Amino acid sequence: MPEDGRSGINPVRGVPIHAPSSLEPASHASGVDLNVASAAEIAQLCELGFDRAQSIKRARPLDGWDDVVRLPGLTPDIVRQLQHAGARIGGPQGGGDRPGREHAE
After folding, report:
1. Is the Cβ–Cβ distance between 55 and 43 less than 8 Å?
2. CA nearest 102: which of 60, 34, 83, 49?
3. Contact 18, 40 (CB under 8 A)
4. What backbone phi and psi angles, to 5 degrees, belong to 17?
């Protein structure tokens, strides 16, 4: 793999591979429901990290983005990043994707 760590040749199949940089959109994160996703799935959103993901998971059921921004370590900027990455609040327990008053755009 080249020094930049972004691409190379798959040794098994001999085909080019591409590892997305952290600047590329996290399309795999699109549609992640914070009320039903695993801590590992949540942690991958915006490089959120395991501790914040666990905090979200423990706070379930989430009724809206106001519930998320009140959690330790989750600032309004991080909540906007989650929204931009495609995170949503729904699932069998959640009240939908209602944005909080201060987070609505």
Report:
1. no
2. 83
3. no
4. -125, 160
Residue 81 burial (CB count, 10 A): 16
Residues 6+ apart with CB under 8 A from 58: none
What's the predicted TM-score (pTM) here? 0.61
Residue 31 confidence class, pLDDT cut points 50, 70, 90: confident
Domains and CATH numbers, the chain: 23-96 (1.10.150)
Q: Cα separations (Å) of 101 from 45, 46, 65, 75, 98?
A: 22, 22, 9, 14, 9
Q: What are phi and psi of 102, to 5 degrees?
A: -80, -5
